[in-house]
Specification:
By secondary structure, the chain is mainly β. Helices cover about 0% and strands about 40% of the residues. It has a domain of about 70 residues: Immunoglobulin-like, CATH 2.60.40. It contains one helix and 70 strands.
């Protein structure tokens, strides 16, 4: 079901973790989108499921995006990748990846650290063992020096250096120039078997590494856990940077067992800023250690502690010279008094509030960072992002939209800025930061504070526009000819003015290629509540649906689920669940079930007690029929119901329910014309019903057996056993000759898969056919099959299957849809995809009433060339066959066939089948209500054969 709006500006997957280069011209980020770049064939990256995270680099100088985490053949890797950093010369990119195909020597099936050389176009594995292969365990949390030479990282591998026998995660530094790896957390010993060293910070020259560790023995005599250390790689010595912290915490807060965390290292490795707290829910101290003087500065005594693992808290940052520190703390009763972003200056020994509001009465803020000069402080105050100029005492809104108003950013987003603070990257959901940001995903943006402009970084490639909507489309109903499809969608770009942000009901006109919003309010825009359960009349004019909206009609303003009917022809709404007085809607929840051929009869279920005469059990769901011609509603049950089905013409309703004064739940058939029940079956435990279109047969399940009652013959006979786990899925063909169903119990066939299979029962021959059989055998396929649907004439059965041996080379691992041709006893894969296999899940399909079209939902993105939304979509498959008829004036022949807009067709003919070549039929092809036709004015021979070419 295509979108009527322009393709979204952003990619088709979430993008986040932006990292801005020093000069602000490059932005590194992670994304699940596969349409940010195109390959050499001008097509987007191949979609995968589950969706993979890739690392991309946006070059702002030429508005191009590059895939960084590319594998050996130049496409995205087979695992997730996340960015860690970019060198100051913009040549090297540091990232972490679980993919195994980015380099040739990665065989550990674990996360690794890699560096991409953008100039050379090569990727180097950093976390290598002593033999040059990937380490024997995962590596993570890397950083590198500004020139990209030295990489510090955490690894649980034990073979990166010799004699690493402590069996805990350690800190390592890899020199990419010499190819040497050094153990930083030397001597670490586990405490209670759960220790680790984490969060490395490396000096600019690669000599010093600060890290946090819960291990002991890093410095002789240190037995406490949760300390900050600095390793001098050249000297091979480790300094206990947090040695004075515990005493200060006990002296100032009378607290013991303090944990140090949240550290930052100056560029020259001299200073270490950090925090100590007795636990993450209490206040703590902010301190700075001077490695040269071995003294500790007390910066603040009321630091705020986040409730996160210690190694993940990064709310303190220091300028490269170590003279300025930004952190989160309470203000010690200084106005403002809230938790704030504070800045400490070593030069003056003073603390300044960076996150004060205009009134300076309330301070807010989190996740701060500071530029190298110490002038600009960037911080988040949900849901906005600000930059404070300490020199001019001015705060600027960073996430300003096109109107200068703040547009919400992602909660928990950590922004990134260039060296001069002039360029700031962040992530945000759909908003007004740029034009046409409606991909319903998180995107990465960059704010140029000098120019006062915002640009989207995670922009889709111009050549990869998607025609699919920006949200999932699911539950659906199809008209007799297949022209109209009513469906539910989360998308907001199927029609204009869909601004409610919730699920709506739409009608797709496949002949005109247009979408119509059915769940619209009195002022012509979308409803203010969720709409669902669409069902369309056979002629395609009326759509019944359920909605909790209170603004669809004045009479239905109760904010509970009511049933409405939309007239596609007139564009008007009417209320189906209307009270007996005609002045109110239902007084409890209702849901639409079906609507008859021409929209007269509306079948629905409801807990309401004011829709029809009768005494209803409070809170019990009952079954109702609304005659929209006589404007009357009849309650078919008053004491509860479970299942119901109405024939297409609306005359008969089969249902399972309880009647007044009847203690048991029974099966009934109601006749809307005669206004009476014409069939009753009191067999216990009935479920899973289906009624033939003439109302004469009703199939039902009792216990584990399938029965069919024939009202004309006045018989009930068993069809087969279903098994305890059968999905049932009963459906008659249009004339009632065939019944398709699913069963987990063998029906006399070689069925050894212990799963549901699809069967077809023929009431004329009284035989059963195994539909979901393996290729070239009569045995059941090797996976579960279910959800069958049969065409009106009984020729085709479409079903879903997890099996891999119904057709050759089915190895995608997802449930597919198959079409079984009953007369020819052949099976065809419906969800073939561009590579002959779909790349995601497909779900139950339905035939149009005439059997000429199939509609089905799928998450696969390779079934149609225009599908790039990473959502579930609805697809239409039309059976292309020719109707050949002589014209009434006996002059020529008309050839017609089902047609879908945007397809092109060519009719060819032969006068004899042994004729060597097909000849194009000239003439004009006409289109009308889903049918294409062309005239062959005067065939020269007595017989002529035609074929249709479509693309």
């Amino acid at each position: 079901m295509g979108s009527s709006a322009p393709p979204p500006a952003g990619g088709n997957g979430d993008s986040f973790i932006p990292i801005v280069s020093a000069d602000g011209q490059q932005v590194l980020f992670a994304s699940m989108a596969d349409n940010l770049v195109i390959d050499t064939n001008s097509t987007p990256l191949a979609a995968s499921y589950p969706f993979k995270l890739n690392v991309f680099l946006r070059d702002r100088t030429n508005a191009s995006t590059m895939l960084v985490s590319k594998n050996l053949v130049g496409v995205s890797g087979n695992g997730d990748s996340v960015p860690m950093g970019i060198s100051t010369n913009n040549r090297y990119v540091l990232f972490e990846s679980s993919a195994s195909d980015l380099v040739s020597n990665d065989t550990n099936n674990a996360s690794d650290i890699l560096v991409r050389d953008l100039t050379a176009g090569s990727t180097v594995l950093v976390s290598v063992n002593t033999n040059g292969q990937a380490g024997n365990n995962l590596s993570r949390n890397a950083c590198f020096t500004p020139d990209g030479r030295y990489v510090a990282f955490v690894s649980a591998a034990t073979d990166l250096v010799e004699n690493d026998t402590n069996d805990i995660p350690d800190i390592f530094v890899r020199d990419l120039q010499t190819g040497a790896t050094v153990l930083v957390s030397s001597g670490a010993m586990a405490v209670n078997g759960a220790s680790s060293s984490e969060a490395p910070e490396i000096s600019d020259d690669g000599r010093f590494v600060a890290f946090w560790s819960t291990a002991t023995n890093l410095v002789p005599g240190v037995e406490t856990s949760g300390e900050i250390y600095v390793r001098d790689i050249i000297e091979g010595t480790t300094i206990w940077a947090s040695s004075a912290a515990g005493g200060l915490l006990e002296s100032l807060h009378q607290a013991t067992n303090g944990i140090c965390f949240n550290h930052a290292l100056s560029g020259d490795g001299r200073f270490v800023g950090f925090q100590i707290s007795s636990n993450l829910s209490s206040r703590g101290l902010v301190l700075r250690y001077d490695r040269e003087s071995q003294l500790t500065d007390l910066i603040h005594t009321n630091a705020f502690a986040y409730g996160a693992p210690y190694e993940e808290v990064r709310t303190l940052e220091m300028t490269p010279d170590g003279r300025t520190i930004v952190f989160i703390a309470n203000t010690n009763a200084v106005s403002p008094t809230n938790t704030s972003v504070l800045v400490w200056s070593a030069d003056t020994g003073t603390t300044t509030i960076a996150s004060g509001e205009l009134s300076n009465t309330t301070a807010i803020g989190e996740w701060p960072s500071i530029d190298p000069t110490g002038r600009f402080v960037l911080f988040v105050s949900n849901p906005h992002l600000y930059l404070h100029d300490l020199q001019n005492n001015v705060t600027t809104l960073v996430n300003a939209d096109t109107n200068g108003v703040g547009s919400d950013i992602a909660i928990g987003a950590i922004p990134s800025s260039s060296t001069n603070g002039g360029f700031i990257a962040f992530q945000a959901y759909d908003g007004a930061l740029v034009e046409n940001d409606n991909n319903r995903k998180y995107d990465v943006f960059l704010r140029d504070l000098i120019a006062g402009t915002t640009e989207m970084i995670s922009e889709r490639h111009p050549a990869s526009a998607s025609s699919s909507p920006n949200g999932s489309s699911t539950v659906f109903s199809v008209s007799e000819t297949g022209r109209y499809v009513a469906f539910v969608s989360e998308a907001n770009n199927l029609v204009s003015n869909d601004t409610n942000g919730v699920r709506d009901v739409f009608v797709r006109d496949l002949s005109n290629g247009t979408n119509i919003l059915a769940s619209f309010s009195t002022n012509g825009v979308s409803a203010n509540g969720v709409s669902s359960d669409p069902t369309i009349s056979s002629d395609g004019r009326y759509v019944a649906f359920t909605s909790s909206a209170s603004n669809l009609l004045p009479i239905g303003a109760n904010s509970i689920n009511d049933v409405y009917v939309f007239d596609v022809q007139t564009g008007t709404l009417s209320l189906g669940t209307i009270s007996t007085t005609g002045t109110a809607s239902g007084n409890n929840e209702s849901a639409a079930l079906s609507i008859s051929d021409e929209g007269r009869y509306l079948l629905f279920r409801s807990k309401a007690s004011n829709l029809a005469p009768g005494s209803f059990t409070t809170g019990t769901e009952n079954l109702f029929v609304r005659d929209r011609q006589s404007l009357t509603t009849v309650a078919l049950t008053t004491a509860g119901m479970t299942e119901a089905m109405m024939t297409a013409n609306g005359r008969h309703v089969a249902f399972i329910g309880r009647l007044p004064g009847v203690s048991s739940t029974n099966l009934y058939i109601w006749d809307n014309v005669l206004q009476t029940r014409v069939f009753t079956n009191t067999t216990a435990g009935i479920r899973g019903i289906s009624i033939s279109q003439d109302g004469n047969k009703v199939a039902f399940v009792s216990g584990t057996n399938l029965f069919v009652a024939d009202r004309v013959a006045d018989t009930i006979f068993p069809v087969g056993s279903l098994g305890l786990n059968a999905r049932v899925d009963l459906q008659f063909s249009g004339d009632g000759q065939f019944l398709t169903y699913a069963s987990s119990y063998p029906q006399g066939f070689n069925d050894q898969n212990d799963a549901n299979d699809v069967y077809l029962y023929d009431f004329t021959s009284h035989t059963t056919t195994l539909v979901s059989h393996a290729r070239n055998t009569v045995e059941a396929a090797d996976g579960a099959s279910d959800r069958p649907s049969i065409s009106h004439d009984g020729r085709f059965i479409v079903y879903r299957s997890y099996a891999s041996n119904i057709i050759p080379n089915d190895s995608n691992g997802f449930p597919d849809l198959f079409i079984y041709d009953r007369p020819n006893q052949t099976t065809t894969l419906l969800t073939a995809g561009s590579s002959n296999q779909s790349n995601n899940f497909s779900f139950a399909a339905k035939f149009s009433g005439d059997g000429r079209s199939l509609i089905f939902p799928s998450w696969a993105s390779n079934l149609n060339s225009g599908d790039g939304n990473h959502h579930g979509n609805l697809f239409v498959f039309a059976f292309l066959y020719l109707n050949i008829s002589s014209n009434t004036d006996s002059q020529g022949t008309t050839i017609s066939w089902p047609a879908i807009p945007a397809q092109t067709f060519q009719i060819q003919y032969k006068d004899h089948l042994n004729q060597q070549n097909w000849v194009n039929l000239t003439g004009t092809i006409s289109f009308e209500e889903g049918t294409a036709s062309i005239q062959d004015p005067s065939p020269e021979s007595a017989s002529r054969f035609y074929r249709l070419l479509a693309n």
